[in-house]
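Q: Given only this backbone (45 positions), what sequence would you predict?
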């Protein structure tokens, strides 16, 4: 359970960072989604 909570917190943090990135660099949302997915897959291993 602790891991799940930490992961949620990390994802929330990541999400806000990506939100800022999106504003700073006008980063395409599709790329953002791919980045999140690859990060999640990395977490699984």
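A: Predicted residues:
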């Amino acid at each position: 359970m602790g891991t799940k909570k930490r992961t949620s917190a990390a994802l929330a943090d990541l999400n806000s960072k990506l939100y800022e990135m999106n504003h700073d660099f006008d980063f395409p949302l599709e790329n953002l989604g791919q980045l999140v997915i690859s990060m999640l897959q990395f977490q699984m291993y």
